[in-house]
Specification:
Blueprint (H helix, E strand, L loop, with lengths): L7 E5 L5 E3 L5 E7 L1 E6 L6 E4 L3 E3 L6 E5 L4 E7 L1 H25 L6
Antiparallel strand pairs: 1-8, 2-7, 3-6, 3-8, 4-5, 4-7
C-alpha cells in the first residue's frame, strides 16, 4: 500500500511495527510516548521521546516501533521537499500533455 506521508499523524500500538520503504527526507516526530526507529544503513537505532524529531536519510527504509505503550507520531516534509515533489508532479503532467500534442500532430518533437 502506498501512503502519502507528508504531514500526517498516526497512532502506533505497541508490538505493531510500521515499515516504510520510500521515506527519504521525511521527518518523524514523536508526539506521544516513545518510538524506536531502525533505519537501513544507519549505524545505530534511534529512540525518540515525545517532542523529539529525526530526519530520515539514505534510501528511506525504516522500521518504527512503539516502546513501553502506544505512541503517536507525525510525518513531516520540509518545505524544500514539498516543493521538489510539486515540481516533479508538474513536470510529469507537462510531459504527458506534450506527448498528447505530439501524437495529435499539434506539436513537433
Amino acid at each position: 500500500m502506498k501512503i502519502d506521508l507528508g504531514n500526517r499523524e498516526l497512532y502506533l500500538r505497541e508490538h505493531c511495527p510500521l515499515r516504510l520503504s520510500d521515506a527519504p527526507g521525511i521527518s518523524v516526530r514523536c508526539t506521544k510516548g516513545v518510538l524506536w526507529l531502525t533505519v537501513t544503513g544507519d549505524a545505530g537505532d534511534i529512540i525518540l521521546a515525545s517532542g523529539e524529531t529525526h530526519r530520515i536519510r539514505g534510501n528511506g527504509r525504516i522500521v518504527i516501533e512503539s516502546v513501553g505503550g502506544d505512541a503517536r507520531l507525525r510525518f513531516e516534509r520540509s518545505a524544500s521537499e514539498r516543493l521538489l515533489r510539486a515540481l516533479a508532479w508538474l513536470a510529469d503532467k507537462l510531459r504527458a500533455q506534450a506527448g498528447k500534442l505530439v501524437a495529435n500532430g499539434r506539436l513537433t518533437a
